[in-house]
Amino acid sequence: MTARPANAHQARLLRLLRDGGPNSRARLGDEVDLSRSKLAVEVDRLLETGLVVADGLAASRGGRRSHNIRLAPGLRFLGIDIGATSVDVAVTNAELEILGHLTQPMDVREGPVAVFEEVLTMVGKLRDSGLAEGFDGAGIGVPGPVRFPEGVPVAPPIMPGWDGFPVREALSQELGCPVRVDNDVNLMAMGEQQAGVARSVQDFFCVKIGTGIGCGIVVGGEVHRGTTGSAGDIGHIQVDPEGRRCACGNRGCLEATFSGAALARDAESAARDGRSPELSSRLERAGRLTAADVAGAAAAGDATSLDLIREGGARTGQVIAGLVSFFNPGLVVISGGVTGLGHTLLASIRTQVYRRSLPLATGNLPIVLGELGQAAGVTGATRLISDHLFSPA
Amino acid sequence: MTARPANAHQARLLRLLRDGGPNSRARLGDEVDLSRSKLAVEVDRLLETGLVVADGLAASRGGRRSHNIRLAPGLRFLGIDIGATSVDVAVTNAELEILGHLTQPMDVREGPVAVFEEVLTMVGKLRDSGLAEGFDGAGIGVPGPVRFPEGVPVAPPIMPGWDGFPVREALSQELGCPVRVDNDVNLMAMGEQQAGVARSVQDFFCVKIGTGIGCGIVVGGEVHRGTTGSAGDIGHIQVDPEGRRCACGNRGCLEATFSGAALARDAESAARDGRSPELSSRLERAGRLTAADVAGAAAAGDATSLDLIREGGARTGQVIAGLVSFFNPGLVVISGGVTGLGHTLLASIRTQVYRRSLPLATGNLPIVLGELGQAAGVTGATRLISDHLFSPA
DNA sequence: CGTCTTTGTCCTGGCGCTGGAGAAAGTCTG
DNA sequence: CAGACTTTCTCCAGCGCCAGGACAAAGACG
After folding, report:
1. What domain of life does the native source organism fall in (chains A, B) (predicted)?
2. Which of A372, A95, A183, A238 is CA-nearest to residue B325?
3. Are A127 and A175 in contact (CB under 8 A)?
4. Å separating the CA of residue A163 from the C1' of nucleotide C11
5. CB distance B237–A321 less than 8 Å?
């Protein structure tokens, strides 16, 4: 079992070293407001536990050079991101820098046993490639609501068979290290907060448009999970009373109108109706269409594809506008599999939000694409577990 | 200047005495996890400052009777709630029990100077009636966004002339005590949390349907104000793309479709068109109609009024359903001037929310009317200032 | 009236922290 | 290159805080 900090001071120091990299005692002292002696004592204790190690001399600040310290270079965290149609696994060091990353297409509906098997194979590969001998902690995201304290999915609509499956317990057994489980969108938000566009933003949300649509909410720097762990589930907000029937039983849900799945469906239908030669030819080649095809067609100037994206962006923007009025965030991040749709989508969303929300709320509100892409989820997962391990036992 | 607690322990004790009433050292010791000696020291210091006083002997718990202590009985907090069309002022003791309460119709658009004059007159009346000699703190709510740290309204749509007016500074000067300013809806939420239906709920929101529509958001027991102080501004979420034009410039805003003002407007129009004899006769008697008339007519069985309420409730429920999906609260409180519409409105809102949001979010979600009515705002205001004063200096 | 329980006070020993003194290690200037 | 200045780091004395035991006070109970 890896050591844990014994008090809040040590936890604070560990997080500073995680987020700011190796540093000297003197500089750490500038940030934590402890007396030199106290700081020295706590650092010495951390050195004893092995969580941090000496790391040579720092550059001089005009006097005696100080001894750097850093988080133990051998620490390894595992980030696992189970999406609807793929699995990502990554290894990071204690500074949450990704050392190795694997992606594998996989349908989450195959159930927890099959998915776990795949995940463990991928973990094995990463281990065999020499990146890690063992793991000090793992974070895992699943595409559905999670009862966070227990680390168990609850009533997940798109992942039958996972309801109540003891993800945390099982994974902890297999890996022999502490594990935390969260919703994949929450982790994506944490990833952008840790290493992406949302650094230093206290209140924001992160809209993930992938197979479905979800939203990670950060309030005061902390993820808001809601009473039953289903906060951020915006895919079934109604955008059109006359809209399509959704799998959830209602009409005109955002997710039924625009999402990776809905976009592919609409593109295929446009291709069949002959409304877009570009899409038709792509359909003929591949046998089916995906959001990526629409992105490609749009990039090639296909008007129908551009319209689909604009229309979807407008619907999404309509929902986001409402949430912005309600929540008044300092930033909105758009991310997920549809990043290929990029700036066309973004422009369309922005138009709606800036038009519909009040000036006070939008006046200084950046709406941006996430900058981590595939890495957001796994980065957030390692952030989740490291936050846990770098807190007093 | 009233004394302030010197540390977090004292602050904790003061809040326990505020929320739990007079208590003995022994019982307090059961709750705060301090050694007897430490507790005795802190209590003695509080006694020295005069914030708490001895209050006789408690009942025996099977041994020596203990000496009760309570918050100083002479402490007085002032709660001021400035609504769009009325002003409420109340005096409470340190336990936030209302000792005196005045209401006065007043249009906030008359501007800060006129409103302040009125408020000070009301305060004078309360003082003269012997309820208080001076005030130890005051909380004030205004119907618009507030830059909370400075206590200044920002860009308030319905209160021209208030933008940038230094409410906190000015009131503090006049009253000679510390003052905190917040949005009126946030205070209403805090009121229900302090003394109403939301006691012990950590995550909820409180929808106020009055002249306009707003929403107080509580996350983890704390009010969420948003980046620019405009969080909860849900009146301008679009509910109908083809709907009425709203004062904000958009179409189909919730507030344009249903609110105290919209309801009165629709009722008058129904009365003129002869769709409702009941409303017509009320219009004839009074010259104009208000939400209260609609409530009265509905109580008398008027079908048109009932339809108006049902339709409005459905629109409101539609918006709340979306917010419930997003936020996953543990409770939704409906309050404000329309409480007269009561259970018809509530039923209509519930129907929408339970139908539209996912079962996981609504499974155990009470949607209830606020139980404090007029007192919610002023209670929240005194809670605001007492939270401030009962925190370490 | 004696015993038991609860409450409140006093006191001692221990722990942890602050901040000064001073040594160690470097930079910089003439 | 020597000496002065700066920064870093260690050591230590002294102070303050606090836990927890001993004991006294007050009352319940039989």
Report:
1. Bacteria
2. A238
3. no
4. 59
5. yes
Q: Would the CB atoms of B217 and A327 count as touching at under 8 Å?
A: yes
Instruction: Judge whether A323 is closer than 8 Å to chain B, CB to CB.
Output: yes
**pLDDT score of B158:** 85
pLDDT at B338 over 80: no
Percent of chain A with pLDDT over 90: 62
Q: Which has the minimum average pLDDT: A166-180, B99-113, B284-298? A: B284-298
- As to burial, measured by CB atoms within 10 angstroms (0-12 exposed, 13-18 middle, 19+ buried), residue B124 is exposed
Tell how strand B213-219 and strand B152-153 pair up: unpaired
Say if CB A380 and CB A373 are below 8 A apart.
Answer: no
* CB of A93 closer than 8 Å to CB of A37: no
In contact, A203 and A366? CB cutoff 8 Å: no
Tokens describing residue A37 = 């002696």
Class for domain A197-369, per CATH? alpha beta
d(CA B57, CA A384): 51
Give buried/exposed letters for B209-247 (b at 16+ CB in 10 A, else e).
Answer: bbbbbbbbbbbeeebbbbbbbbbbbbbbbbbeeebeebe
The CATH fold of domain B8-71? Arc Repressor Mutant, subunit A (1.10.10)
Ranges for all domains in chain A classified under CATH 1.10.10.10:
8-71
Of A203, A313, A356, whose CA–CA distance to B235 is shortest? A356
A67-71/A23-24 β-pairing: antiparallel
The CATH fold assigned to B77-194+375-389 is: Nucleotidyltransferase; domain 5 (3.30.420)
Question: Quick one: which residue's CA is nearest to C24's C1'?
Answer: A64
Question: What CATH number labels A77-191+375-389?
Answer: 3.30.420.40
Proximity of residue B59 CB to strand D below 7 A: no
Find which of B227, B255, B356 to mutate to test the A interface (most A CBs within 10 Å of its CB).
Answer: B227
Distance CA A370, CA A210 (A): 13
Q: Please, which positions of strand D sit below 7 A from a protein CB?
A: 5-13, 18-22, 25-29
What is the spatial distance between Cα B353 and Cα B334, in angstroms, rounded to a whole number? 13
Write down the pLDDT at residue B325.
96
Stretch(es) of chain A classified as CATH 3.30.420.40 = 77-191+375-389, 197-369
Q: Within 7 Å: CB of A35 and strand D?
A: no
When the candidates are 3.30.420.40, 3.90.105.10, 3.90.420.10, 3.40.1350.10, the CATH number that belongs to B199-369 is 3.30.420.40
User: Which pLDDT belongs to residue B339?
Assistant: 58
- What does the alpha-carbon distance between residue A70 and residue A385 come to, in Å, rounded to a whole number? 19
B contact test, residue of A223, A250, A358, A365 with most B CBs within 10 A: A358
Whole-angstrom distance, CA of residue B278 vs CA of residue B392: 58
**pLDDT given for residue A340 in this prediction:** 66
Q: What is the DSSP string of A280-316?
A: HHHHHHHSS--HHHHHHHHHTT-HHHHHHHHHHHHHH
Residue nearest to nucleotide D12 (CA to C1'): A37
DSSP bridge partners of A79: A90, A139
> Helix B260-272 and helix B291-299: axis angle, to 10°?
60
From chain A, the residues in CB contact with B358 under 8 A are 157, 230, 233, 236, 248
Say which amino acid occupies A178.
P
Please give residues of chain B from 247 to 266 whose alpha-adjacent beta carbon (CB) lies under 7 Å from any atom of strand D.
none
| Residue A42 CB contacts under 8 Å (≥ 6 apart), including other chains | A7, A9, A10, A13, A34
pLDDT at A54 over 80: yes
**Phi, psi for B106 (deg, rounded to 5):** -165, 140
| C-beta separation of B240 from B314 below 8 A | no
Are the Cβ atoms of B361 and A224 closer than 8 angstroms?
no
Strand A332-335 and strand A367-369: the pairing is: parallel
